[in-house]
Structure formats: structure tokens, C-alpha cells
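C-alpha cells please, single chain.
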Amino acid sequence: MILKKNLPRLSSLLATLLFSTMSIIATAQTYPTKPITVVVPYGPGTGNDIIARIIAQKVSETSGQPMVIDNRAGANGNIGADYVARAQPDGYTVLIASTSSVVNQFVTKDSRLDIAKDFTPVGLIGSLRNVLMANQALPANSMKELIALAKEKPGQLNFASGSAATHFVGMILKFVAKIDFTIIDYKLTTTGMTDVASGRVELLWTTTASALSLVDTGKVKLLGVTGPKRSTVVPTIPTMIESGYPELDISIDFFFLAPAGTPAPVVAKLNREIVTALNTKEVKEKLASAGVEANGGSPEALAQYIQADMARWARLVKETHYKVQ
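Here you go.
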């Protein structure tokens, strides 16, 4: 009797669910029908920005809709991330995130987000080496010489940081090398790069993509690069492992995130567009010239990566007794 009484309500719920499912499938089949905005949480010329523009150009060609870049820098990348987390979960606003986005959760008070809960993984893009860049006039041409110089002049060298993640890397360098220097925080990495080139500060930890254009000017030099083997982009620069600092072997991975709740069929369609772009010769060559090792991957693989990376950084923060900034 009770079952009969609730049949109309059950039928209505099933009908609503069926309609909703069919609507999502239909939306995914036609997606995208308007421009897709890629939010870059850092300024122009940074690794996130360079990679986003390379991929956006190709996806714009293949998807039939423009992929537009929107730079929203500030608060260690959290302004852009927060904007995407609050956006409509329809696949038309996505974030090009990176290892820094994960690190922020553990090292900055600015972060109010949980990467694993506030976003839907879309797919990995690739990895980029990090380099320790120095002003050309600095009397040190290797990690060994830098450490010796820092010990001779404790607290006198300046390390420019453009994010909470690079600030933390600076602290790791202090910790493992048992040296002291001053960390100067910048709102934008590009401003710190300009100051290193001009000689206002001596050191900066950044990506190969960001550093290469300055290296070509002859105003800066590289003291070390991350990765298990030497970079093909800067083959004469020893790795941090070669220099005896495996703790600094911290490369940066890039990936796309959508707001939590973005329908799986839409995420799958966007992932296919991105992976297709990554597999083209044109995109591979452009990324390689910036030092990016393209990999791609499924949303599921990205979800696993994020969980593992969160565990890694939580451990490093604990081991170094890092004080949240």
C-alpha cells in the first residue's frame, strides 16, 4: 500500500534523473558551443602562461571555439584558482594549475582551497624543469661556489620569490645546504626576474620556460637544473642531483582543472581536445622549445597524481618545520 502511494513520486524522481542525464549527454555531444576561458593564475611570460597559450592556440583550431587566456595573478596564484573554483561547472572556465597550486595548500595562508575537493581533474599537460638563476655578476658559477659564497656572506645574498612555492624551495635550500640568505617576496615572478637581470637581487628559482629568454640576453646565468638527467634545453648545466642536492630536484608539473561538479562527459570531451593538441607535432615542438616535456593523461591519472603530490609536500613541510607564510 505504501509502495503504491509513493509510486508517482518515485516515477517523477526517475523521470527527472533520466532527463538530467540525457541533458548532460546532449550538452557533452555539442560541447563546446562558446569560447572556453583558461585562467592563468600568474602573469604573462610565466611557465603557466606560456604553456596555456601554446595549447589554447591548437585547441581553438580543432574545437571550433576560441580558447581564451585570462591572466589573474596575485596572492601566490590563489586569486585565479579561487575564481575558477567559484565558476559555473560547465566546462567553459578552467584553470591551468601546477605543482605550485598543490604546494600553496601547505605553505600559505592565502589558500582557502582544497585542490582535491574544489576542482575536477581534467588532465596532465607536461613537466617543466626548474632552474636556479643568478645575476651574471654574482661571483659563483656553480652550486658548490654559491654555497661557499653564501657561507662567506651569511644573510647578504638575496633570493627572489614569486610564489609561496618558490619561497618554500628557498627554505629547503637553506635547510639542506645549511646557509643563510634573504628571501624577497614578489607579487609577480616576472618582476623578480627583472630585478635579478638588473642586479637588484642575486638569485631566483624559476622554470626553464621563464628563464630562457633572460639567459639569451647575457644578463643572467644558471647554476643548476632539476631532473634525473641534464636538460636538452640547457645541456651544460649540472642537475641538482649531480651537484649533491637531491632534495632540490623539484620539477614542476602542469595540468588543467575545472570547477568541482563539472559533468564527466564534458570533462572527457575537453580532455580529448587537450590530449589531441598535445599529440600534434606543432605543439610538441613548441613545448619542447620552452623546455616542457609533454605527457598528457586521463582525468583519473591526474586525480592520482594530485593525491600523491599532496602527500609529498605535506611530508616536506613537516620535515623542514616550515612556518606557513
